[in-house]
Amino acid sequence: MAISSFDLEKQAVLKLKNFSLAFGVQLFKALGDESRLRILNVLFHKGELSITDLELIMDFTQTKTARLVGLLKNASLIQSRRIDHWVFYKVKEEASELLGTLLEFMERESPFQSDLSNCDALSTNRELSINKLAMKQYKPDLS
Question: Which residues fall within 8 angstroms of residue 71, CB to CB, at 6 or more apart?
Fold first, then answer.
């Protein structure tokens, strides 16, 4: 059974009706900054990334990246998971449909394309934290 675009729009509208005014204000504030939108775009398209990964991809400082990620987490748009000393962030499932719709309108913007290209290059070069974590798990203990 195929789902029509009308049904998808109806589902998105139904989710929007459940937002409180306070959550709506927090959501739109979080979406009101290019840097935060860039972070959301990368997380939406590439999945889990650490603060270090986001710093490398976007050429931000650690302080700026952590502050931006904190604002997005407080707005309930992203969630975190800790593995060893790394914390990985990803878009919350509840927010992915709404963000996907919004980000689709901006996907051709130069900063968004550049960030995704940088992420692909860093992933290929095994410079992302997930690659380092995988290498750490497979290293034999030589002591």
Answer: 29, 30, 36
